Amino acid sequence: MAPDAPAGTEAEAEAEPEAPPPPTLHGVPLSESRGQDVAHPDRSQYFELIRTLKDEGFVMCVDLCGVDHLLKPNRPLPDGVTAERFEVVVNLLSLAERRRVRVRVQVPEGDARVPSIYQFHPGTEAMERETYDMFGILFDGHPDLSRILMPDDWEGHPLRKDYGIGRIPVQFKHPGGDR
Amino acid sequence: MTQTVETHVPVPAVDSSVGPVSLTGGVEALRDPAAVLRIPHLPEDVDEVPLRNPDGDDTMIINMGPQHPSTHGVLRVMMELKGETVLRSKPVIGYLHTGMEKTGEDLTYLQGPTNTTRMDYVSPMFNELVFSLATEKLLDLEVPERATWIRMLMCELNRMSSQVLWLATNGMDLGAVSMMIYGFRERESILAFFEKTTGLRMNHNYIRPGGVAVDLPAGWRDDVLRICDVFPGRLDEYETLLTGQPIWQERTQGVGIITADECVALGVTGPILRSTGVEWDLRRDAPYLFYDKVDFNVVVGTYGDTFDRYAIRLNEIRESINIVRQIVDKMPPGDYRAQDKKVTPPPRGRIDESMEALIHHFKIFTEGFKVPEGEVYVAIESPRGELGCYMVSDGSSKPYRMHIRGPSFVNLQALAHMIRGGLLADAVAIISTVDPIMGEVDR
Predict the structure, then answer these.
(1) Are B382 and B124 spatial neighbours (Cβ–Cβ below 8 Å)?
(2) Å between B264 CA and nearest CA of chain A
(3) CB 3.0 to 4.6 Å from B266: which of A123, A149, B174, B355, for a disulfide?
(4) pLDDT tens figures, B339-354
(5) What CATH number has the domain spanning A8-140?
(6) Confidence (pTM)
(7) CB contact under 8 A, A91 and B390
């Protein structure tokens, strides 16, 4: 995909994450959140990372969702990761090793698109549609990227932070006549 | 159906610690990715979709649902039929979407379970549990032992009521209407206990961050043991009613077959995955609560058909009874919620005599407690599969983002692959066997 994306073979060599230099997973910054492994690829590394992890045994993609960090631009991220407005969060599971790894991709607001991982994990079809529906993030290569929860003609993406919560305007009675 | 399977006996309970190793995923794992019906987007000026294929062959696209008694709520399934055979299909969802994830961002952590409990309304305890576990993991809060055991007790009872409700509705879908009455009767005995404990039959808001809402009522042990005593005999009756019955076997065996590879590729978990022979149960493979302190079997199937999923759910009730009995034996005395003044409200009696207790009470219920910044994913085994909660906190008293990974939402994708090539009448059995709870699918 990208020039700096590591090929599968050389990535195997530096797979071990524990080291005094910043931990990495297949050349991607790795952090830990409450004891859970989180990888932070950029968009060009994302596709290859999912492929490599799948070959490594993370065969099931249990969850894929989006997060809108509009109100939280200064969140902690490992060095070398630029915070963007959106994040796509993928939870992978290795049944054999009983391990989980989470992949967080930063997605800029101006160009909100990431490659679809449908061809590795067909189960992400509905999840990517949901993320598109709720956040407006486009998934390149998805077979049927359409709204899934909201009506087809809905405008806006409800889980974005700048999308207001619906309120029913308070209707007062007629101000009253003679009194 | 062309596929036939020999008559098989109820699925044996298998307990082995060897996980599956050689499963592959990806689109290649699907027998036929084209099983999903994709209607090409029509040009703007076309007003109506032609019912018949203009190419002249005799396939027809029909909609089943969203108002259909066997779609378990407001599920709509678009199906392309040739005669009575389903060629392609596609579940269409969203009719029950109420924006619960958005709502969750506007509720404090203490109010959160009232929201999540309404997602999977057949097994509300699990939704409350996964939300509470995620919050507690962010807080790094230790829950007292008794609270954890109470949570396990309620969850296993809820699993029994959920599976027995599935037996009931599945029986109704396949024409065994008496099963529906029996199933609902059994479920009611558990809901009566829930009502006694939590005050509500459903949507309990019982499991909360920090523990549970109230302690178990006096006499709970007798109530629970009575349920445990009644259930096994009733389950044997259902076996007599359904398992060996030729019509039931004809309707379920060899219907809706799915393979382990397909399940893994589609992210399908729970009884559907286990029906293909994959031993995967988060209670055993990633123990949470005290599931590592009780003995139970993981029930797996062989053929991955509707009958296997029926047998798994039936036998999981037996395993749950077994777990409940162990919990009753092991229930320790102690607190039912954590004694952290910033998280759990003070006892009612303290409020009258202590100014600090009054302040804490006021603070907790108006402002809520603050949760440190971070993000966490917690998964538990609900009756339908992996129920996950991805929670992002920004340090305030409300979740910044609360995403629930509903097992029904993901499992529903297997529907098109299971229906493909089957008969329309079998589609009813297969929809039922996925056990989708639309509140959780649409959230």
Answers:
(1) no
(2) 6
(3) A123
(4) 887 888 888 888 888 8
(5) 3.30.460.80
(6) 0.86
(7) yes
